[in-house]
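User: Can you help me understand a structure? I only have the sequence.
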Amino acid sequence: QVQLRESGGGLAQAGGSLRLSCAASTTLFSMNAMGWYRQAPGKQRDLVAIISSDGYKNYTDSVKGRFTISSDNARNTVYLEMSSLKPEDTGVYYCTMRRNLVYWGQGTQVTVSS
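Assistant: Let's start by predicting it. Here is the structure, written out as tokens:
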């Protein structure tokens, strides 16, 4: 059973920055893809960014140029660097990784004030 633990959420002002971390209980080399989803209040959970095992990255349009996903295989950790934050970035951010199964973290709250 793979466990994912997110950290780094919190309160930020519009225009500010936050870095989310997702530490996995196993090596990232075994994962096919890793990513971050966001669930705003009253809305469905949507994909924010994804990175594949070969390093391919993709972002939802609303965060392109502002968010960066990266991975550190030595630390078994995936990051989401968020800058130029907007109030609409508010939500619970979930880390996810896919091997044979899909694994989810417990989520970390990000709140951006205007």
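Now, to help you interpret it: The CA atoms of residues 72 and 78 lie 6 Å apart. The mean pLDDT is 96. Let me know which part you'd like to focus on.
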